[in-house]
């Protein structure tokens, strides 16, 4: 939309090129300065409620339907929790590596989708370029090779998921205590055929993101950027990790707030707050309180939180990234893209390693042990740390579920980024154009939010409905808490 | 030896044995007639009507109607297939069938029939009934949301297991499968009962099995239901 000088209430709806449905509202004061800017999540889901009474072994298959983009993350996170319910958390090497391969395939395809299909139009054409060109069709017209490469890269990731989970979307591979198939020699060789090409394209993608960020460093420093805490999984020696490991939180200077907390006691460390204007919750680090404890998750936070990558090329790229801020955490919102592509390179390096591992052809697929009635799974989804918490009864039925999804953790940061960008680019402007409003969306897109995933809760969200007359006077207000 | 009975299915001359039903005789002649409540080894019931054929233009259940000399049967025609399609359609909307996460998916006879009949979505309105789950048994899970009232569990329990674990109660839209106690754990049901393998859908499940059979290895992943009976299998859509 275009806002004229008479407009004091701007709505961007829907926010485009993100997963799910959301809107942004911006209120201007009498001097046309931004008074308030918010990202609203207008979807409503109900997974935490409607999985109740279902048998626990259905969880990894049901809850992955929260999302069509990163279902593998939900599938595996639920499976990790369910592993504990059946006492099968110490997976066999084949099961562990099959799941890791599935997850790296997921990271690869999800990051590629986001960078090339959703964000590259902004980066390659400009934030306020012609909107008729600033889209994936524009990319395929002007950069056909890049578009083709993006499609083939995503296809590669999807093929990995198919060979490990059974289907490209919403598979059934991870089962309580293991996996239901191994990787056949034929499937392995099929994937190895393309691996060198994928590596090269991942290197090229890192270069695009890196060059863009370095060349636009001054813009990035003031584009929806702010200092924050960061949270991500790392291995015991501090290596970047997405499937397992311990959760590490760092402060704005990179000092550790907590490291390798007990995953089963995550509620001692992370708390969620609800607010009346959004279906999405607002998590924060308990010890720091709601005001100061909010944090960021996702590629930027994972790269900030880890000490190194476990693969050589990604580690070399991380060092280059860290050098920009002299080793301190990088807080630039636009730097998410660079770190996302470093993770993409790491994913394909790890995929190559795994494909050469004979454990993937093993037949020992499942373990079971002492049963439990409550368990937590934590995993890194492409968009950030994901928590699944379940309790079952003596009849194997789910009686409680709590999910903290990645986008939820980035709720406060995204709102902050929206506010910063709105203040910088929209305040005092006579005519607010589509291009200016796209700046707000660019800030949101950097986080790669999945709004569908983030609105899974039911029955605990407060809701306020305000009724205004045409002069903007509040006539009535109803609230549910 | 009894004289064979000669009859006709869609003009094809077929010979069966006296006392055979249309469905049984057709199967011996490698002619597939869709079915759900029929199961080899159990008494014939005629509940689901998916095996409906036309005899002298009159719809009958092939699983309960004996063949007779010179009988003219309409089976694989548009009219009959449309009847069956409607019946399958109604079975879907009368229950709560969520194939996308049902562990029976790929092994489910109802789902397989929907694929065979190319039913992407039901044309009737979903009824969304409120039905009970019985998870009380340590090894068996009953989800009545998926029950199609075929009665295979009832007959298998009685005829094969020599028990009386399952029974129908209620009438009309209130009809449902009950167990011979307050809950399944109070009956003499055990997971090795043949009744626990009789369910064509995901209403009676063995606990803790879930999705152990990977996609690609399930019964109907590569061939449509009935292909094992027919001489030439039609290509699978699944």
Search tags:
heterodimer; A: Cytochrome-c3 Hydrogenase, chain B; 4-stranded mixed β-sheet; 3-stranded antiparallel β-sheet; 42% helix; B: 238 residues; alpha+beta; Ubiquitin-like (UB roll); Alpha-Beta Plaits; 2 domains; 5-stranded mixed β-sheet; 16% strand; globular
Description of the structure:
The complex is a heterodimer of chains A (481) and B (238). With 481 residues, chain A is of the alpha+beta class. Chain A has two domains: 9-42 and 415-458, no CATH class; 59-263 and 295-372, Orthogonal Bundle (Cytochrome-c3 Hydrogenase, chain B). Chain A is built from 17 helices and 16 strands. Chain A has helices at residues 47-50, 59-63, 71-85, 93-125, 136-142, 144-165, 185-193, 195-215, 217-221, 289-292, 299-305, 312-323, 335-355, 406-409, 411-426, 434-446, 451-454, and strands spanning 9-12, 22-28, 34-41, 174-175, 178-179, 229-234, 246-250, 256-259, 270-273, 282-285, 295-296, 374-381, 384-392, 398-404, 463-468, 474-480. In chain A, the strands form six sheets. In chain A, strands 8-7-6-11 form a four-stranded mixed β-sheet. In chain A, strands 1-2-3 form a three-stranded antiparallel β-sheet, covered by helices on one side. In chain A, α3 packs antiparallel against α4 (93-125). Chain B folds into two domains: 5-76, Ubiquitin-like (UB roll), CATH 3.10.20; 85-206, Alpha-Beta Plaits, CATH 3.30.70.20. The longest helix of chain B has 17 residues, at 78-94. The N and C termini of chain B lie far apart (44 Å).
